[in-house]
Amino acid sequence: MPYCFGVIRTADECVLVDAGFWDPQIHDRLTVKYGETRWKPPAEVLGRTGMRPDDIGALLLTHNHFDHAGCAGQFAGAHLYIQREEIDRYRAALRLPARFEFLTRNCEPELLDVLDARDRVGRLTLADGQHAVTDHIRLLPAFDTHTAGSQFALVQDEASGPWLFAGDNVYVYENIEGLRGDGVYAPISMATGSPSTWLTVTDDVLRFVGGATERVLPFHDSAVWQRFPSREYSDGLHVAEIALAPGHASILANESA
User: CA–CA separation, 153 vs 167, rounded Å?
Assistant: First the structure.
């Protein structure tokens, strides 16, 4: 079960899309379920791109699930962005009887405390739909799809074109390219929202990349390591380089671990 997070480095700051997680108990459970797996703290993996947690100026959370938001607190200096709908609906689900536990089963229980701490220091934005993070980074809502308040992160790079960080709204490329490569959408599983809503939202969001599915970045598909230049480290983990700004050295040559 691979999981990824994205790093966007601009002229002004470093931005993280999702924060990964580090929980030995969950690691053990998933290892039993999926076979051999390898884990490292996200902050350590970030070091392989030449950056440290303190370098992160903004953290964009695609949704509140443990494997995407579990380490949000470790990037303490980052301004955190998440959809207000995601948090309001999570709070409401927590108040429901225990028989509705499915709605919160995969959520990150400590995220509310992280959000409160960021809010107190003025480093929290609860987005209400589309939201411009910078001139070139925009949040696109995907309500009632994978989760109640999921979002995409759109990067409009002048040098290489647009890129769409999908979180779990594209779990693997087959979701948008078809199970047989026939272009027939295959709705995501393990969702709390509506498959029909996902179909409509996905079709609409793909227009931001001109329908080019190769410009969509799913966070659980190891195909990312084959579709883009990548490096496999001795511990089996990978770093993929999606686009490189002109004049910048490749991070794939970075030897730090």
Answer: 8
